[in-house]
Specification:
Structural class: alpha/beta
CATH class: Alpha Beta
Order of helices and strands: EHEHEHEHEH
Low-confidence stretches: none
CATH superfamily: Response regulator
Radius of gyration: 13 Å
CATH topology: Rossmann fold
Strand order of the largest sheet: 2-1-3-4-5
Shape: globular
Helix content: 40-55%
Number of domains: 1
Number of helices: 5
CATH architecture: 3-Layer(aba) Sandwich
Distance between the termini: 11 Å
Length: 120
């Protein structure tokens, strides 16, 4: 079973994404800020990360990406950016771990599952 880490601060969105992916037989970990997500990514066997850019606390999505690009054990995990900021696409694509970029408002749950299956 493949494992997805969802790093999304909106509890309701995180839950909806988690439930949908579990329906498709993915194992799912949820984090609500960058630091919590980083701790999970470093200690669990993660196959793919869904990452929001705007996160509370001391580590936002871009800071997460910077760290992931530098650490050997993390840079092999593909990341799909899942945000409402269409304007951040070019900046996000600069990181080698970023494989996809989805705008939440334009992405239904089936499209999300397709993207996960594509990169996992």
């Amino acid at each position: 079973m493949k494992t997805v880490l969802i790093i999304e601060d909106d509890i309701h969105i995180n839950k909806i994404y988690s439930e949908k992916l579990r329906h498709y037989n993915f194992n799912v970990y949820s984090a609500y800020d960058g630091k919590q997500g980083m701790a999970i990514a470093r200690t669990k066997a993660i196959d793919l990360i869904l990452l929001d850019i705007i996160l509370p606390g001391s580590m936002n999505g871009f800071e997460f990406l910077e760290t992931a690009d530098r650490e050997e054990n993390l840079k092999k995990i593909p990341v799909i950016i899942l945000t409402n900021l269409d304007t951040q696409k070019d900046q996000a694509k600069k990181y080698s771990v970023v494989k996809g970029y989805l705008v939440k408002a334009e992405t239904d749950l089936e499209k999300l599952v397709e993207a996960v299956k594509k990169y996992i």
